Amino acid sequence: MDLTSILEKKQNYASRKIGGEYVIVPIKNNVAEMNTLINLNEVGSFIWDQLQEDSTVEAIELAIVAEFDVPQTTAQQDLAKFLDKLDRTLKL
Amino acid sequence: MITFPNTSEIAIRVADFTITIRKSSNCPTLFLEKGYKEYQTALISDVDSVVTAYSKIPEHLNTKADLLYKATREDQDFWSISRHQDGYKLTTYSQSNPGIIQQIAVIDADFKDWKIYTETITDPQSGEAGVCPLEYPMGPLLFYYLTVKNEAIMIHASGINDDAVGRIFSGFSGVGKSTMAKIWESKGSQIINDDRLIIRKQGDNYYIHNTPMVYVDTPKKVKLHTLYLPYHSPINKAEILSPAKAVSKLLAYCIIHGYKKEHLEHHLDFLAAISTKHTTTRLGVVPDQNIIEFIKKNENEHSVH
Question: What CATH number was assigned to the domain covering residues B152-301?
Answer without folding.
Answer: 3.90.228.20
